[in-house]
Specification:
Blueprint: E1 2-5, E2 13-19, E3 26-34, E4 38-43, E5 49-55, E6 59-66, E7 72-79, E8 85-90, E9 96-101, E10 106-111, E11 123-126, E12 137-143, E13 146-151, E14 156-162, E15 167-171, E16 183-188, E17 194-199, E18 204-210, E19 215-222, E20 233-239, E21 245-251, E22 255-261, E23 268-275, E24 281-286, E25 292-297, E26 302-308, E27 315-322, E28 326-330
Length: about 325
C-alpha cells in the first residue's frame, strides 16, 4: 500500500507499507520517494506506474515507475495548469489521466505514453465564471468515453464526452444541485448507471441514476449521526466490490458512514457511523480482498484499520499505525 502525504511537517513524500490481508496488519513502513505534498495518488491499470499531484508553489502532476523493491523512480513531471491540484485518475486503458485543480478551478487531460510518461496537457477546462465565486474542481473520473467532474465551488457535476479528437461538454451538471452542499468526490457503479456524490459542506450523499435522456436524482442521505451538531466536512467515498455497500468519510464527526445499497433501485440506507479512531479522515480505501477498510487520519497522523463484515457491510476496529500526515491510500 502506498500513502500520499502533506510534507509541511515530518513527512518526506510517498510512503510504502506491507499489508497483511489475513490479519489486517500494516508493517515495514518505508519512504518510497521524496516529493513535495503528494496529496493524491493513482495507479496505472497495470500497476507499473503511480501518478501523483503535488500542491507545491506551482501545481504539478508527476509520473513514477515502481521498482522491484517497491520504491518509486521519477519519470517526469508536468504542469497541472492550475493552482492546488487535489485529485488525479486514469482511464481503464491507462493511456490517459485527468487532474483536478481545486485552487484554479481547472481540469486538465493528459496522454500517457507506453513507458508511463505524462505528456503535456492537451486539454484544459476552466470552470470559472467572471463575477461569480471561484470554481473548485475537486475530482474527475473517466467512464468509457465520458468524463465526469465534481466542482465544489460551482456545485455541479459536469459531464464531458470524447469526440473525434477531444472531450466536449455535454452537461454543466448532470442534475440540478440545490443550495451549497459542495460536491467533492463521487463513485460510479460498474455498469455506469448510478453515480454517488459525497458533499463536503452538506454532510450528505446524493444518489443519481442514468435515464434514457440523462440523469435524475433518486436519493439524498445524511452522513452524520442525528445527534451530531459540530463542524463537519465530508471527504471520500467508495463502493464495496459487490456494490452492496457504500462508505463515506466525515471530517469533524471523524467517522465512516456505512450505507446498504439497494441493488434494484440504487437507493441507500445508512446502517452505521463508525469512529475512525483519529482526527480528520481525508481519505480511505478498501483493500483488494475487500475484507478490510483503512482510513488516513490527516491531523492525528495515523492510519486506522477496520475489518469489513461481508454480510452486513459493517466495520469493526482492529488497529492503528502512526505515519505523518496521511491524506491518500492506494492499493
Amino acid at each position: 500500500m502506498y500513502v500520499g502525504t502533506y510534507t509541511s511537517g515530518m513527512s518526506e513524500g510517498i510512503y510504502k507499507f506491507d499489508f497483511n490481508t489475513e490479519t489486517g496488519e500494516l508493517s515495514n513502513q518505508k519512504l518510497a520517494v521524496a516529493v513535495q505534498n503528494p496529496s493524491f495518488l493513482a495507479f496505472s491499470p497495470n500497476k507499473k506506474y503511480i501518478y501523483a499531484v503535488g500542491e507545491g508553489e506551482t501545481g504539478a502532476a508527476t509520473a513514477f515507475k515502481l521498482k522491484s523493491d517497491g520504491t518509486l523512480e521519477f519519470i517526469n513531471s508536468v504542469s497541472s495548469n492550475g493552482k492546488g491540484p487535489c485529485h488525479i485518475s486514469t482511464n481503464k486503458t491507462g493511456n490517459r489521466a485527468v487532474v483536478s485543480n481545486y485552487g484554479g478551478g481547472t481540469v486538465s487531460i493528459y496522454d500517457i505514453n507506453k513507458n508511463g510518461r505524462l505528456e503535456k496537457a492537451h486539454q484544459t477546462f476552466n470552470h470559472n465564471i467572471e463575477g461569480q465565486s471561484p470554481a473548485r474542481a475537486h475530482s474527475a473520473k473517466f467512464y468509457k468515453d465520458e468524463l465526469f467532474v465534481a466542482d465544489l465551488g460551482r456545485n455541479r457535476l459536469y459531464q464531458y464526452k470524447k469526440g473525434n479528437k477531444s472531450y466536449e461538454m455535454v452537461s454543466k451538471s448532470i442534475i440540478h444541485i440545490e443550495g451549497n452542499p459542495g460536491p467533492r468526490h463521487f463513485v460510479i457503479s460498474q455498469d455506469g448507471n448510478y453515480v454517488y456524490i459525497i458533499n463536503e459542506y452538506g454532510g450528505s450523499i446524493t444518489s443519481v441514476k442514468r435515464t434514457d435522456t440523462g440523469f435524475e436524482q433518486i436519493d439524498y442521505d445524511s452522513t452524520l449521526e442525528e445527534t451530531y451538531k459540530g463542524e463537519n466536512k465530508c471527504a471520500d467515498i467508495h463502493l464495496s466490490k459487490d456494490e452492496r455497500f457504500l462508505y463515506g468519510s466525515n471530517r469533524g464527526e471523524n467517522s465512516i458512514a456505512v450505507f446498504k445499497r439497494n441493488l434494484d433501485t440504487g437507493t441507500l440506507d445508512k446502517i452505521q457511523n463508525m469512529t475512525v479512531h483519529g482526527d480528520w479522515p481525508r481519505n480511505f480505501a478498501l483493500d483488494p480482498s475487500g475484507k478490510f477498510l483503512l482510513v488516513a487520519n490527516q491531523k492525528s497522523n495515523n492510519i486506522s484499520v477496520f475489518s469489513v463484515d461481508k454480510n452486513t457491510g459493517e466495520l469493526s476496529f482492529l488497529n492503528t499505525t502512526e505515519t505523518p500526515s496521511p491524506v491518500c491510500l492506494l492499493f
